[in-house]
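Q: What would this complex look like in 3D?
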Amino acid sequence: MEGNSKQVGERGGVLVHAPLFVAAAHELKSPLALVRQLSLSIEAGDVTLVEAQKMAHQITLTSERALRLTTNLTRTARLEDGLFTLEPLNPVSLCQEIAQEIAPLYKARGRRITVVRSRPLLGLANRDLLRRILLSFADNALHYGGDDAPVVITASAHSGGSQIRVGVRDYGPAVPGKFAKTAGVAATTVHSRPESSGLGLYIARQFAEAMQATIGTIRHKDGATFYVDFNASTQMRLL
Amino acid sequence: MAKKRVLLVDDDQWLVELMARALQKAGYAVDMVRDAVAAIQQVDTRCPDIIVLDLFMPGPNGIVLLHELQSYVDTARVPVVLCTNSAGDVSPEWLAPYGVCRVLDKTTMEPADVVAAIRRFA
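A: Here is my prediction, written as structure tokens for the whole assembly.
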């Protein structure tokens, strides 16, 4: 991880400087506090079997989400250690795998995640890193999106077909204008939303850079799209 | 006698469900919203007897809601229990003028603490 400190938030116009580990601790507090409350409630014994099973399932899903974050954090610390092989991959297929993987968490929260089908695409990326970026975006969208609207993953070609963009669109509160620069321009200072520590975006940028990709944010009136751009495979012209 | 009404304002759906369950068992009527904007709408519709408020939520944060509540005579009197992961970063003395009567730390509280706090102030 670079440096000892980064800007992790802006509240009331005052920039808050804090070490990265403080941001990580902040992000992990919420799931750990929830797991503790759920566990205490089960321990208290005044829940039905059905309620206890539901709470146990919530503990599992919350723990898995927290573990994804910690795994990603340790991964960012080792990005320099290895080369990340770029391989031709079908982004739509990967999006569908991710939607399937995270669907239980969405379902448990009464939410939906869908993938918009597009024409055949072939990108050049590191499958593991791209998967981690998109899972991070999907985790984020679940938290910040509105109650009823689904989260939508889209994949499309742009820049004359030389680039692939995969975006995760949520329908929650908009990203304030002052934060609406692209994350790639100033990723250490621009955050998804002001109440966020920005850690997820920081991690996503590290992963993107390791595979020559970029990430960015598009602000909408009713939410935001977080996207990753990477090169299209030259084999795409054969499709 | 009508039940006392508690408004829970928190984006952590599962934690809110836990608190609501405990409060309902203790005899309270509970409304739940996940952000400050929805909270203001809910307060306009049916003013609660007490509010349990998280600090950091999508959209305007809890401080913004506290400011809004203090702007009107009828809502300024509604006691607020702040329930946050960042309890160590806020000063109860600083928050008292905003109607905050108690600060609960989500990382250390027991499930019964919310009910106990509500009983004391509503």
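A: To summarize the key features: The longest helix of chain B spans residues 13-25. DSSP finds six helices and five strands in chain B.
Q: Very helpful, thank you.
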